[in-house]
Design a protein that fits this description.
The structure is a single chain. This protein is α/β, with parallel strands linked by helices. It contains nine helices and five strands. It is globular, with a radius of gyration of 19 Å. 16% of the residues are buried. 47% of the residues lie in helices and 13% in strands.
């Protein structure tokens, strides 16, 4: 069987989850980062269960400090199960009218499914010619975005073609992502319970 098929099996059949499934189906990007993805055809019928998704997330949380799930809209059973357990929600949008509408709907969805989750808004490709300005986006979504990733037309295609991470060749991208990373880290510290000594002396 293809190594990624196990990833689909565990969300469909939670009884197949065990402590070693990450090593079986994951692709290790580095010593501290692992990618779980399915490579089924686009027309494949996948039937995740809420118990399967919950089991995968709990197993990953026991092993990793951060679990990042790339989600689509509209949401299905799997996405709703993820949202219900989310501690953070990062909504990424392009600077255009369609993305503004989508982000407004996404914020309502997150608020209903995960009222305790901390939400960040990120503008991708900010400053792209012919698209909305940051002021126009701010007026459209009713707030200033948490972070912006500027339009870098040469960086990402070049990275995709060379197979090298875009961060290696772009100081601007490193700076933009550093700001976002700091925001995520500060949110995590804010919601984590204090230790006994922290409560005693804090």
């Amino acid at each position: 069987a293809h190594q990624h098929q196990g990833g689909v099996a565990v969300v469909e059949q939670p009884e197949r989850i065990d402590t070693d499934f990450v090593n079986r189906v994951g692709v290790w990007i580095s010593e501290r980062m692992c990618l779980l993805a399915a490579e089924e055809p686009m027309d494949a019928e996948i039937h995740p269960t809420e118990d399967g998704v919950a089991g995968v997330l709990e197993t990953l949380r026991q092993r990793f400090n951060y679990v990042v799930v790339d989600m689509r809209l509209p949401v299905g059973i799997a996405e709703r199960a993820v949202l219900a357990r989310a501690r953070h929600s990062i909504l990424v949008m392009r600077p255009d009218v369609a993305s503004i509408r989508g982000l407004v709907l996404a914020r309502k969805l997150v608020a209903a499914a995960a009222p305790d989750a901390k939400t960040l808004t990120v503008i991708n490709s900010a400053g792209r010619p012919g698209f909305l300005s940051e002021r126009q986006v701010r007026d459209g979504i009713g707030e200033t975005a948490t972070a912006t990733i500027r339009y870098l037309p040469d960086v990402l295609p070049g990275a995709a073609n060379s197979g090298r991470p875009a961060l290696h060749g772009s100081r601007e991208l490193r700076r933009d992502l550093a700001i976002l990373t700091q925001e995520i880290a500060s949110m995590r510290l804010a919601i984590e319970p204090q230790s006994f000594f922290g409560r005693l002396f804090g």
